[in-house]
Amino acid sequence: MTSTVPRTDGATTLIVGSGFVGRAVAARVARDGGHAVLASRRPPDRVGAPWMCLDASDPAACARVVDRVRPDRLVLVHGPSDVTWCEANPERAEELHTAAAAHLTAAAAGRRLVLVSTDNVFDGSRPDNDESADPAPANAYGRAKLAAERIVRAAPDTTVLRVSLVYGWEPADSAKWLNFFAACAHRLRSGETVEAPYDQWTTPVLVDDVAAVTAAALAPGAPALLHLGGPDRVSRAAWAEAIADALGVPRTRVLRVPRAGGRYASRPAHTCLTSSLLDDFLLRHGLRVRGVAEGARELLEARP
């Protein structure tokens, strides 16, 4: 890539992390008239914006990328998000999340910066954690994200955006693990059964809504801490059944199982977020967050 990234009339946003959420944020920034540049260790599965190679654990590399892109603002969606992997590699997970936060807040040099964080900073003992709730992570992923949050919140002009479970459409041959919605939809369509815990609750958010709120949080005046959860609190089992309904397949293909002992064992019982600030924020920016039924219907209608 050339030494600088061409600029447009709109603001330039450097998005560190080119996965599912990072690509959606880049698309939203472009839709809003800005210029987005993705940066990550590996190139994205699907290219929709300029991309630069970046090892965010290297402070010199972070400084070079910021110098070349000359962004007006930054979004951090960086770090391993596989809860199971983080649980098996807790020290490495925290190292990667905190290094990215430290190096990029330093390289940003006061530019507006938004960190996309997680509901896993809470232990799952209650379903109604708003911005005033004290974090108490119960897994390594949550501890790593909370450590990164503290670094970012100590820097000027930053927002930490905690997001509940993100969902959207991904192709069946995606190189990475599909999000819960896409994995269920593909398997149910192909005639398979889906195991889903009846005792793991979440407030899912459509990826396009996450991207819209993230882009809005880049504007001046956003809260320093903001929670983004969907309007529906559902168990994964009930959500899988709703996806089956939208597809017109029998609910009997969804096998209700306990969280313990399965692949969701390391997730908190409640990965739910509430907010005392979100409604006003959405109103101010002309946005809304869709529920799971509307989101599933729109996603399935838009795909063959």
Automatic annotation (TrEMBL):
It comes from Kitasatospora cystarginea. It holds the Pfam family RmlD_sub_bind. This is SDR family oxidoreductase. PANTHER family: NAD(P)-BINDING ROSSMANN-FOLD SUPERFAMILY PROTEIN. Residues 14-277 form the RmlD-like substrate binding domain. It comes from the Bacteria.
